[in-house]
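Complex record, two chains
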Amino acid sequence: MEQNLRIPGPTPIPPEVLHALSRPMINHRGPEFAAILERVETQLQHFFQTTHPILFFPSAGSGAMEAAIVNCFSPGDHVLAVTIGVFGNRFAKIAETFGLRVTRLETPWGHAADLDQLTVALADQRDLRGVLLTHNETSTGVTNDIAALARIIRQRQPDALILVDAVSSLGCVDLQMDAWDLDVVFTGSQKGWMVPPGLAMVAVSPRAWAAADRATLPRFYWDFRMAKKSLDKGQTPYTPPVNIFFGLDVSLEMMRTEGRDAIFARHQRVADLTRTRARALGLALFADPAYASNTVTAIIVPDGIDGKALTKALREQERVVIAGGQERLEGKLLRIGHLGYVHDTDISACMDALERQLAALGYRAQEPAYEQ
Amino acid sequence: MEQNLRIPGPTPIPPEVLHALSRPMINHRGPEFAAILERVETQLQHFFQTTHPILFFPSAGSGAMEAAIVNCFSPGDHVLAVTIGVFGNRFAKIAETFGLRVTRLETPWGHAADLDQLTVALADQRDLRGVLLTHNETSTGVTNDIAALARIIRQRQPDALILVDAVSSLGCVDLQMDAWDLDVVFTGSQKGWMVPPGLAMVAVSPRAWAAADRATLPRFYWDFRMAKKSLDKGQTPYTPPVNIFFGLDVSLEMMRTEGRDAIFARHQRVADLTRTRARALGLALFADPAYASNTVTAIIVPDGIDGKALTKALREQERVVIAGGQERLEGKLLRIGHLGYVHDTDISACMDALERQLAALGYRAQEPAYEQ
């Protein structure tokens, strides 16, 4: 029986895409690769909802965070990091590591960034060069309202760069880079795109290009300018992960065929199903329901249940693989991924297995739980 | 007819490995991936000829260069960059980009680093913190004698770190990290390892670990300490390129079965065959014969022949893909890769095609050419 991989990335890969991954290798400097690169960029622009160039880095998503920081800023630059969990904190930490002056706006985990708090935080800032946002916080299962956050930022700090970690949201949830006036938006291949990990994709606005020209942080591998110069020749500065491009060429075509809105609706539907089934088991959801993510659901481990024993039992008895909590949420959360190649039956099977293994561990559902 | 991919990386992939690339995705934080990671590291140590840990970065080879620099040094540190071509220059440029004081020891392209010149260069240096070396210079088809270079460095500058770019040599040509007392040695998945591009592998000596603890250059994505901390738990700090690991798990087992010395002998044989066939066509080889690479052969484009037209004809008429020259050698060289999954018949077919297409372009062999 094949594994039901229900972590928030890497995600399952459709058979057509798996097949493409094993195409014979080609020259990354030849016309065949240049054609793939052009097709992939064009298709991605449709999902980023942008006309700006999209740069490619052989990298995990965290590399794209570093790329965004070192291209846009200079040491001592002041940025506001709006953080609602582990990945927001990582983005802030990278900015600190590279010598930026970072003001953090933190929200209790499980909640989205608060619009009023952001308004206040922006009013107090001088010389603010950028704001770091997380679209979907994978550690807590919360999706920020980027449109509203960006509108407030543009009103209060019209010149600040808006950098958006969209690693676990893009391609699954609506994000309109150009309409919302975002400056750097990045994602990772192993999330909504239905291909293996190893490729980061970064879209860059004209405002961010201008910043990259002024910025003094040293950069080589992540240099946007070198990536753009190569892109204009149908290449990448360094050897790209060719077989991921083979996969993307197929998966993006599948996504275009399904349609952007239909994909968003499917993610809404599988997320609703996950939440409904969890509540029916009497389980409490971690995320504020108003901002619950359509790509990952965080469930609070019930009292008296050992979260690690539960995930192990699911893996070994059911071939269902879910994630636990990260950092201070370790052992306290179950996280179920439902992004990319996912359908209702995958979720039903996962929740059936969860119900069985909870029962095996002695769990008895209480009345529907209070949600934080 | 399948393409005969004869560039110096990415290299062809054996069918067994192609098959492994399309295995269904797994959890990168689970026990199955931890077991693969451990097997792959152990197998790689055999080929690096080291007992030191090997770190993994989702990255091209150039990322490993940047990782080596930012982990080992602080701004203003003095390093000697021994450069014999494009990739040696890239290593030096990265060091400069990050604020090191770089002394360059350059050799005319086509030649290996000169031992006497190195001896002189080292005697003049004070406070030298490191020496940057290229094992195999892919742009010129020259392999440095790292054992001899390292011996001279250790005698003159016992505390200097020796950093070796072994991207296009490791696993194909003898390199003894521990016996030669090297400090940082790195390679890329798309070269001798018979898997797709996207993974950099970096071995780190105790001397380099001590340097990494002292170094003040900011680092996050490339941080050796974070990579080591994760490795000790059977993980990587960021999502690894899982399907490249699937491939490596198979290709390294194939390599162990063939045997390290047998692999080196095969690379010697296919390189000799390439050079012999080229000379028989009256073509001049670019590399000093004493240091000619066993992984890539650079041939001088004969007078009166358009190098770009020739590579195009090979690609379109013969399905043979070779590389041209880089930077100042653009249009002046043909480069034939013979590393990784390569056998005599691949080379014979390539050279037969080269002979036909040269003739079609009007080339007539002269008496065996003078070799630079």
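Note: Chain A touches chain B through 54 residues (CB under 8 Å).
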